[in-house]
Write a structure and sequence with these properties.
Structural class of chain A: alpha+beta
CATH topology of the largest domain in chain A: Nucleoside Triphosphate Pyrophosphohydrolase
Oligomer: homodimer
Protein name (chains A, B): NADH pyrophosphatase
Pfam family, one (chains A, B): Zn_ribbon_Nudix
Order of helices and strands of chain A: EEEEEEEHEEEHE
Radius of gyration of chain A: 19 Å
Number of strands of chain A: 11
GO molecular function, one term (chains A, B): hydrolase activity
EC number (chains A, B): 3.6.1.22
Keywords (chains A, B): Hydrolase
C-alpha cells in the first residue's frame, strides 16, 4: 500500500557482531532490510520524531534564529529529535529549554503533526505558554524574539513543518478555537 | 529535565565501519551515546512509532486476536511499527490490512497517542471506518471479530495503549464528540 521510500540504506555493518550487512527481504517480511551475513540479525530503520513547541506569551510567538545547519540564520520554532526515555511532552519542553532557555507550560493534546515520509520524520508541536520573559539564545541559537502574528518572518522560516504549525496556530487563534492538526509533506523540506 | 531512561544500550559495533563502540557523552551533547572508537560516528537511538487503527462498523469495533508474542492469544487493535517512507496514516492503514485484511477510511486527525517512555515507543491510533464486512485474520492474527462497546474483552487485551485508545473511543462515542487524546504510560505494558 506504500510506495518504496527514497531513503538511502546506510547500514553497512552489524551493530551486534560487526560483520558485513546485506540488504534482502527476510522470511515473513515484505521489505528490504539490513540483515547480518553472519549472525542474521535484522536491523530495522524506523522514522524519527522531531518534537517542539509553539511558545506564546500574550499575542506573541517566540521564534529562534538558527545557529546551525540546516537553515543557519533562518527562524524556527524550538524543536529537535525526541530521545529514548522521555515522552513527547518532555522532549518538546527539553528542546524549548535547550534552544530558547525558556520554561513553558505545555498545552495538551499535541497540536500540529506533520509527516515527512521521504526523510522518515514526523514533526510534532505542542502549544506552550511561556511563563515569563525569561528566555535567551541557547547554544544552537543565534537569537530569540517574540513576534506578533502579523510580524512572522514567513520568508525566513527554516522548515515547512514550522510554517504549517504557525499557519494552523494563527488561523485557530483568529477563530478562537484550537484543534489538533495533521498534515503530510510530500516535497523536500530543507 | 528528563530522567535517564532504563533502555539497555544495545549497539556493540559501528554500522559504518564495523569497529567497536564505546558509550560516552560526545562534545556539545549531554547524553551517553554509542560512539565508534575508530571513525567517531555517533549512533543515536530514538523512540519508535507504533501506528494502528480503531476500525469500526456501525456501533461495533474490530479487534484482532494475536498469533504472535507478546500477547499471544490476547485481543488487540491492528497496529505495528511505522516504516520509513510512509506517513502515520499510511502505516496505520497498512497494518490494518496486514493484520485484519480490512480496508478502512481513516479519520483525521490522529485520535489516540500514548507515550511509553520506558520502552522508547509512541503508540498512535486513528479512528477508521471499515468499508464493509470483508475482513479476515492476517498471518500475525488468529481471529478477527466485531465487538459492541459492552462486549470488549477488557481482561484479555494485549496492551495498555489499546485499552486507553478503546476507553477514549467509547467515552467519546457515548458523549457524541471525538477529540484527540494524549496519554503517558509509566508502567510496563504487555
Amino acid at each position: 500500500m506504500t510506495e518504496p521510500h527514497s531513503l538511502t540504506p546506510t547500514i553497512k555493518f552489524c551493530s551486534q557482531c560487526g560483520s558485513a550487512i546485506e540488504y534482502r527481504i527476510p522470511p515473513d517480511d515484505s521489505r528490504l532490510r539490513a540483515v547480518c551475513t553472519v549472525c542474521a540479525t535484522v536491523h530495522y530503520d524506523n522514522p524519527k520524531c522531531v518534537v517542539g513547541t509553539i511558545p506564546f506569551l500574550g499575542d506573541k510567538i517566540l521564534l529562534c534564529k538558527r545557529a546551525i545547519e540546516p537553515g543557519y540564520g533562518m527562524w524556527t520554532l524550538p524543536a529537535g529529535f525526541m530521545e529514548c526515555g522521555e515522552s513527547l511532552a518532555q522532549g518538546a519542553a527539553r528542546e524549548t529549554f535547550e534552544e530558547a532557555c525558556a520554561t513553558v507550560d505545555l498545552i495538551e493534546p499535541v497540536y500540529s503533526l506533520v509527516d515527512i515520509p521521504h526523510i522518515g520524520q514526523i514533526h510534532i508541536f505542542f502549544r506552550a505558554q511561556l511563563r515569563d520573559h525569561d528566555f535567551a539564545a541557547g547554544h544552537e541559537t543565534l537569537a530569540v524574539a517574540l513576534f506578533a502574528h502579523d510580524e512572522i518572518p514567513w520568508q525566513e522560516l527554516a522548515f515547512n513543518s514550522v510554517r504549517v504549525a504557525l499557519q494552523s496556530f494563527i488561523a485557530d487563534a483568529t477563530r478562537g478555537e484550537f484543534n489538533t492538526h495533521h498534515h503530510v509533506r510530500t516535497l523536500t523540506v530543507s
